[in-house]
Amino acid sequence: MSKIFNSPEMNETIRRYFAMEKNMRGLDYRELSKRLADAGVEQSEGNLRVKMTTGKLGTPLFLHLLMAMDVKQLDMDQLSNIYEQVRSDLQKKV
């Protein structure tokens, strides 16, 4: 697998993005798990917490989470900014 698709930077970007969206909407993992179940996607609260806090999500779950959180548009500029911040933060640690 290509490193760019399985990188700590991208996982952290996804983690920060979902944390931001979840917090902006006042959602917790229990509610997200319920919303996913209502859409036919079984994810326990604990399993969802692990996946979202590590940023390691498959594409189908990524899309289901966006829909469960009622995200209408994916702002690529915003994601790009988060990614650049993550890269900067990680470089400071080195």
Automatic annotation (TrEMBL):
It comes from the Bacteria. This is DUF6471 domain-containing protein. It comes from Pseudoteredinibacter isoporae. Residues 12-74 form the DUF6471 domain.
